[in-house]
Design goal:
Number of domains: 1
CATH architecture: Sandwich
Radius of gyration: 14 Å
Number of strands: 11
Number of helices: 1
Shape: globular
Distance between the termini: 36 Å
Helix content: under 10%
CATH class: Mainly Beta
């Protein structure tokens, strides 16, 4: 299914670049962007986040219109949303983020293996900046 999603959208979407903390092996790419025909003004956008061993993302937020469902595709991701506990999610596990949430920790739980995460946004169609990193 992921291969189909990536292939079907590869020609229609452009990469979304992000300032991930470690090296060039870390990446964030928009892999799907489609307006929801039954929910005017909303779109579904999917972002593939790839972390090199030890890779991290700076603390960040997403648009106030965004509901996010994230699932770990490979490896393990350590995550903290708002003041909740730091939780490690293994491949096949998922979590959600609600509008206005603060993502304080998002990182590869391993120093030796890569990790991949697919984040699916339901967001205002007009929204072009999906992630705002803290400085």
């Amino acid at each position: 299914m992921i291969k189909t999603l990536l292939c079907a959208t590869a020609f229609a979407t452009a990469p979304v670049t992000a300032a991930l903390a470690n090296d060039d092996a870390d990446s964030v790419k928009l892999v799907y962007d489609h307006a929801l025909p039954n929910v005017p003004g909303k779109s579904m956008k999917a972002v593939l986040v790839e972390y090199a061993p030890g890779g991290t993302s700076p603390a960040h937020t997403h648009p106030n219109s965004a509901f996010i469902y994230a699932t770990v595709l490979e490896g393990a991701i350590r995550s903290q949303v708002n003041d909740g506990p730091v939780t490690t999610y293994q491949a096949g596990e998922s979590f959600s983020e609600f509008p206005g949430d603060h993502h304080a920790v998002s990182e590869n739980a391993s120093k030796t293996e890569r990790a991949r995460l697919l984040a699916i946004f339901v967001v205002d169609t007009s929204e072009t900046n999906l992630t705002t990193y803290e400085k």
